[in-house]
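Pipeline run #58 for the internal structure catalog. This entry was flagged by the ingest filter as a single-chain record with no existing model, so it goes straight to prediction. Upstream metadata was stripped on purpose; only the residue string is passed forward. Reviewer on rotation: M.T. Logging verbosity set to normal.
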Amino acid sequence: MDDLLAQEMEQALAGLSENDMLGIIPEKKALPKVKGDGHTRTGTIIRVQGGDVMVEFGPKSQGVCPLNQFESAPEPGTVMDFAVERLDAFEGLLILSRIGMRTKPQWDNLQVGQIVDARCVGMNQGGLDMEVAHHRAFMPAGQVDIRSVPDISIFLGEKLQCMIIEMRKERGRMVLSRKAALAQTRRENQQKTLADIQTGQILEATIMSLQPFGAFADIGG
């Protein structure tokens, strides 16, 4: 991590507790103890929501299973057996998998430098609360975009492609940067454009600025 990014993160995290950084809200009631490690429970599918299948085990117990573990979208009301992986304490949901389709926990597959899909689930004084594969993460305000964003609340509820810039698995901490992901995409586009461009080729371009000596144009890279 470079010195500028480290300084920016230090400023963003100043005064925040570990709970604040992860967007964890103190629970109003105790959550039930859950036996994980593949413990089997029978539940009823209540709906398909995006890439998730919501499952009900009782009036106060629900879980979520990835839709990609089903051959086709299951119908609400279908009763099935699931393996309980763990409890997501923030959402109060059981994280489930289909029997016989358990995979290595996604947390173990995540690493610094990886580009991931992250959902913005909240804000705090230093940045955005994010969620990656049902794990909490934090994105400093200065890492939201390449350009300054006056009101980062516009990203609430949005799914964003971000780069993991810090991970402390033993503490369950993950820090993200959309700015770094955008910069990487820009570099890749520049390299592709320079590799494909030829002398005499006619290109469409967007004029970015005018100077006495000429114009700066964006040709898509």
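catalog note: The chain is about 15% helix and 40% strand.
catalog note: The longest helix spans residues 178-196.
status: ready for reviewer M.T.
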